[in-house]
């Protein structure tokens, strides 16, 4: 019932966007403001929040069997897609300035050194920066680095409580 309600809300939202010409994501099976890639919907969020808040915010989207999570990345192509999405929404300011990374859904908060995605999938692809992960029990969340960084598209483990950065959510496409 809840999933049908969500589909109905998605359709109503899509019809509301008809006049603006932004029907592309609706016809793809993604809600407005989400982007389709390989049967999943992705959305960039520009507000800077902690890892826990980003994770919670993602899970407020979706319904039934299709709730969003912080983005999980399972291939070089998907890493490239996420990197390009990140780059398209950020400016060219100093990459060393705080907040110029994005949260991704990889964490080892349950067992040190065993990284898993927040959506429950295994870490079958990684793009660690050289020397990472290196944080021990203090660094349990993972960021993707700024597009202007020499380590662009690479990942680093960091403190989940102290950083405030942007994030990308991912959920399964409804109609794919």
TrEMBL record:
What PROSITE patterns does the record tag this protein with?
C_TYPE_LECTIN_2
Q: Pfam families under this entry?
A: Lectin_C (PF00059)
Coiled-coil portions: none
Q: Which residues form the signal peptide?
A: 1-21
Keywords, comma-separated and alphabetical: Signal
Q: Where is the C-type lectin domain?
A: 37-157
Q: What is this protein called?
A: Alpha-N-acetylgalactosamine-specific lectin
Lineage in the entry? Eukaryota, Metazoa, Echinodermata, Eleutherozoa, Echinozoa
